[in-house]
From TrEMBL, chains A, B, C:
Ammonium transporter AmtB-like domain residues: 21-432
Cellular location(s): Membrane
Keyword Ligase: no
Domain of life of the native organism: Eukaryota
Keywords: Ammonia transport, Glycoprotein, Membrane, Transmembrane, Transmembrane helix, Transport
Topology of the protein relative to the lipid bilayer: Multi-pass membrane protein
Name this protein carries in UniProt: Ammonium transporter AmtB-like domain-containing protein
GO MF: ammonium channel activity
Amino acid sequence: MHTPGSNVSGYIVLMIVQIIFLVLFWLFVRYEKAALPAPIEAEDAGSANEHVSKYPQFQDIQVMIFIGFGFLMTFLRKYGYSATGYTLFMAALVVQWAVLMKGFLHMEGGKISLSLESIIDADIAAAVPLISMGALLGRTTPIQLLCMSIFEVALFAANEYLALNVLSICDCGGSITVHAFGAYFGLAVALMLRPASDQNDAGKHEGANYVSDIFAMIGTTFLWVYWPSFNSVLAEGSGGERAILNTFLSLAAATVTTFVVSALVSHENKLDMVHVQNSTLAGGVAVGTVCNLLLGAHGAVLIGIIAGTVSVLGYRYLTPWLTRNLRLHDTCGVHNLHGMPALISAIASAIVASMVTPDDYQSELQDIFPAMVGNNGTTTKIMGGLGRNASSQAGYQLFGIAVTLLIAIGGGVLAGAVMKYTSFRNLAKDEQHQDEQYWEVPAVENKEE
Amino acid sequence: MHTPGSNVSGYIVLMIVQIIFLVLFWLFVRYEKAALPAPIEAEDAGSANEHVSKYPQFQDIQVMIFIGFGFLMTFLRKYGYSATGYTLFMAALVVQWAVLMKGFLHMEGGKISLSLESIIDADIAAAVPLISMGALLGRTTPIQLLCMSIFEVALFAANEYLALNVLSICDCGGSITVHAFGAYFGLAVALMLRPASDQNDAGKHEGANYVSDIFAMIGTTFLWVYWPSFNSVLAEGSGGERAILNTFLSLAAATVTTFVVSALVSHENKLDMVHVQNSTLAGGVAVGTVCNLLLGAHGAVLIGIIAGTVSVLGYRYLTPWLTRNLRLHDTCGVHNLHGMPALISAIASAIVASMVTPDDYQSELQDIFPAMVGNNGTTTKIMGGLGRNASSQAGYQLFGIAVTLLIAIGGGVLAGAVMKYTSFRNLAKDEQHQDEQYWEVPAVENKEE
Amino acid sequence: MHTPGSNVSGYIVLMIVQIIFLVLFWLFVRYEKAALPAPIEAEDAGSANEHVSKYPQFQDIQVMIFIGFGFLMTFLRKYGYSATGYTLFMAALVVQWAVLMKGFLHMEGGKISLSLESIIDADIAAAVPLISMGALLGRTTPIQLLCMSIFEVALFAANEYLALNVLSICDCGGSITVHAFGAYFGLAVALMLRPASDQNDAGKHEGANYVSDIFAMIGTTFLWVYWPSFNSVLAEGSGGERAILNTFLSLAAATVTTFVVSALVSHENKLDMVHVQNSTLAGGVAVGTVCNLLLGAHGAVLIGIIAGTVSVLGYRYLTPWLTRNLRLHDTCGVHNLHGMPALISAIASAIVASMVTPDDYQSELQDIFPAMVGNNGTTTKIMGGLGRNASSQAGYQLFGIAVTLLIAIGGGVLAGAVMKYTSFRNLAKDEQHQDEQYWEVPAVENKEE
C-alpha cells in the first residue's frame, strides 16, 4: 500500500540538504581567479579563453551523464519516467555535493575555488551513483537512491583522493575510481537489499518492450560517441590525443566483438539488445585507466576485443548465475558493463606500468606517473619524485584497485544496511520496476486513441 | 471540415517569403572580412581559427533550438509530428529572417556582414517565436505560426536594440529580451485566440501518453545540458566562465527544488512529469540576465531554488487559474518556464546592479555595464561613458523589462488580432492538438502488428 | 525458414576480420608524432592542444554517424533494432578499416600515422556504406551489409584518392566522393537484388508508425544541426567559416522549401513526414562540394531552394516510378537525399569553378584548387602548380563526378552480384523489414500492460 507520509518526509530532507548546500556555497565557495575580472592594466582576453578550452569536452560529458545514463536506463518498459527523471534529480543533487566534497579536499586559504574544472569533476562524480543506480534500477524508492548517492559521493571523493594523491596510481579515464567503485558499491547495496529466497524471480514488470529498447539506444549511442571526451578530459599534453584515439579504437573493437559474440551465444543465434545496448560500451571502460598510455592502436583494439567478449559472456552466463545463486539482482548488468571491464582496465594498467621506462614518457612522466619521477632505471631517487620503479608502480596499480573494491563494497554494505533496516520505506516486490508508485502516470493510455 | 485551399495559399506565401529572402541576401549580405581569403602576403591561419572559437557553443545552441525545443513539445500524444516538424520549419525560416533583420540594424556601408556571430544571433532569435509557439501549441495552423514568427522576430530585433543599445541594460543570457519577450508575446496571442466561454475545457487530444512524455524528456535534458552555452555565448572575458558556472549551479538547484516541490504539492505526493520536463529548466532562465555577474555560487544556487519553486507553483496553481478565469490557455506553460523566471531574472539584475561598484568589474565594466563607465562612485562623468551610477543602472534594468513587456504584449495582441480576424484559417476546437489536420498520419497503426 | 548455420559462419568471418584488423594495427599503425610525449627539453603543451582543435567538430560528426544515420533509419516500424544496431555495428567495423585503408594510401616509411585526422577521415568514410544501407534497408541480412561495407569502403578510398589527389577536384564537404558514391553504389546493389517481377509490391512490414516516425526525427534533427561540422571539418583557413555559413543557410532554405513543396504536391496538401525527415537535409548535401567557395549567402540559399525542391519531387514522383518500372527499391530514398543533391553539388562546383579567377582565393588557392596554382589568368604555368585554368577546372569537376558514378555503380553491381549469387543467405520477401529474423524481440508486447 502506498504511504505518502514517508515520501513527504524524505523529500523535505532533500530540500533541507539543498538549503545546506546553499549555505556551504555561501561560506566556502569562491570563483577561481581566472573567472574574476582582470584589473584594467592587465587586460588579456586570450587567457580567459584558453582557461575554458575544455568546455566542449565538458559539454560532451554533460550529455553522457544526463542523456546517456538517463536514456540507457529507459529500457524497462514501465520505468522510463524514473530512469530519465531520477537521473536528472540525482545528478543535479550530486554535482553540487561533489563541488563541495572535492573542494573540501583541496581547499586553499579556507576557501574552495570554483572553476570549469570543478564542474567537470562534479559531472564525473555524478557518474558514480548513476552506475550504482543501474544495479538497483526499479528496486528502490527515489528517497533511498538520493540519500545513498550523498553518502556514496563522499566516500568516492575520499577513495579517489587516496588512490590518486596518496597511492599515486594512474587512472586517467577513471575506470578504477569511477567505474569499479560505482559498480561494486551498487552491487553491495543490491546484495543487502536482495529478495527473500521465495521471491527471487524476476519482477513482473522487469523487462523491455520494443519502444523502450529503442529509447535505450539513445543512451547507448550518446555514451558511445562521447566516451573519448570522458576518458581524455583530464589527460594532459599529448596524452589527450592518445586518450581520444585509444578510446575510439577500443570502443570500435568492443562493438564488433559484442555483435559477434552476442549472436554466437544467444538463443537461435539472434542478437540480444541487452548486449548491444551495454557491452558495446565495455571497450570505453576497459581502456579507461590506460587510455593516455602508449598502448599502441593494437593495444587499444585488443583491450576492446577482450572487453566486448567478457561483457557479453557476463550478461549471458554470470548475471543469471549470480541472480540464481546469490539472489544478487543487477537490473542493468552494471557488473558486465562497468565492473568487470574496470577490472580488466586495472590489470591492463599494471601490465603496461610494469613495462614503463622513464624514457617512454619524457616530459609527461610527471603528469602520468608522478611517483616514478626520479627513477632513472635503477632504484636511486633523484629529482624529488618518489623514484618508484616500474614493477613497483604495477604493484601500486593492483593495490589501488584492491583498496577501491574494499572501500566500495564496504561502503555499499553499510549503505544497503541503512537503506534496509532504518526507517526508509522499501518497495515490495510487486511495486518494483514501475513508475506508478512515485509518478503521476497517464491513465487512459491507448484507449481513446 | 478540411479546406485545403487556404493551406495552399498560405504555403505559397511562405515560398514567396523564402524567395524574397534570397533576393535580400543577394542585395545586402556579404561575408565578413575574416571569412574571406587573406591576401598572399598576410597568410595567417591562426586568426581564422580564433575567429570561430565560439563554434562549439553555437553547435550546442543549435541542438537546443532544433532538438531541445522540438522534443520538449512532443509531450502531446497526437502532436509529435507538428512539434518536431514545425520547430524545424519555423527555425529554418526565422534564422534567415533574423540574419537580415539584425543585419539591417547594424549595417556598414549599406551591407550586412555575415559571420559566425550572425548565425549565433539568428539561433538565439529563433528561440523567441519557439517560446511563443509553446503557449499556442496545438491551437494554431502552421501558416498562422509561421506568419506570426516573421512579425515577432522583427519586433524582437527592434526591442532588443532598444534594450541593449539604447537603454544599455545588461542581459547576457537574454532572459529579458528573449524569454520574457517570447513568453508574453505568446501569451498575448493566446489571449486573443482564447476560446468562447462555452469551449473553455481542455481539448480532447490535449494530454500526454507514456511514450510522448519520454520523447519530451529528450528535449528537457538537451536544453538542460547545453543551457550554459546559451547563457555564456555572448559573454566576454572572464564573464564567460562565470556565466557557465552560474548557469550550471542555478539549473542544478532548480532541478532539486523542482522534484521536491512537485512531490509536495502534487496529487498523492507523486511527481508530475510536466514539472520535471519544464521547471527543472527555470533555473537557466532565472539566472540568464545576471549569469555573467559576480553573483557568487550561492547567488546562483539561491536563484535556482527560487525559480524552481515559483515555476512548479505556477504550473500547479496559476496556470489552471488563468485558464479558468481568463480562458488563457498556455499549452506548454511557457509562463512558468520562461515568463515568471525571466521576471525573477530581471529583478535579480536590478538588485545586483544596485550594488555594483566600478572596482568590481575592473576592465570588464565596459563590456557588462557600458553605461556605467565614467562613474567613479560619484555622479561625475569621466572617461567617455554615460557615468550612470549603480542605482540608476538598477532602475534602467527595471525599465528595460517593463518596456519589453509592453512591446511584447502589444505586439502579441496585434498579431493575435490579425491571426483571428483576417483571412487566416483558424482551427476549430476538435481539430486542435492533433497532427491529422496538417500531416499524413499512418492509418493502420497498431492493427497489423 | 530460419537457418542459423549460415548466420554463425558469417559472424565468425566478421570476428576473423576484426582479428586481422588487430594484426594490421600492430604491424602498421603508429601514433603520429604530436601524440607522443615531447622530449623534456621541448615542453610545449600549447601545440598539443592546437593539434586537436578540430576535436569538437569530430564529436559532432560522431553524433551524425551514430545517432544521425542510426535514428534516421528507425522510421520503419518493425526495424528499429536493426536501424540503430547495424549502424553501430557497421560504423564500428568500418572506422577501423578506413583507418587502415586510407592509411595504406598515405604511408610514410612503411607505417601509418594515427592521429585525430585519421579518425575524422574514418568517420566520414563510415558515412559511405551507411548511405548505401539506406537504399537497402530491411532487404539484406546483417552479414551481407557488413561484408558489402568492407568492399565498399576500400573502393571508396581508392576513388577518393583518384578524385582528390589525381584529378585534383575540389570536394570540401564530400558530396561527390561520399554522398554520390554511397548513394549510387547502394542503388546499384539494390538493382542487383531487385525482386522478381511478381514480388514488386512494398513489403508488408515496410512503413512507419507514429512512434517510429518521431524516433526518425531524432536522426533528422541531429544531422541538420551538425551538418555544418561535416562540411567544414576538412576546410582550411577562412574556408572553414564559409563552409559553416553556407551549409547553415543552404539547410535553412532547403527546409523551408521542403515544407512548402511537400504540402503542395502531397495528398490533400498534407505534409509528409518522409519529406520532412529527409529532404530538409538535401541542402546540406547539395552545398557540400562548394561549401568553402565564395558562393555568397544568396548562392547558398539558392542551392538550398533547388535541393529541397528536387528532393521532394524525387520522393513524390521519381522513386515510385523507379520502383514500378525498374523494380529499383530505395527504402530510405537515398537517391533523393544523397544522390540527386550530390549531382546538384557537382554541377554547382563546375559552375563556380568556371568563374574562378586566381585573385579570388589569394593565399587559399593552394588549398582549394591546388591544380590552378600557377594559372595567372592565361595558360602560362608558373609557381609550380599545374596552372589549370578555370574552365579546365570546371571540366575536371564534371569528370570527377562522372568517374565517381562509374566506379560506384560498377562496384555496386559487383557487390550486389556477389551478395545475390554466392553463398550469402538472402532474405525472402516476407522476412524483410522486420527485426525478428536477426534479433530477439520481446514477445509479450502490449499484452500485460
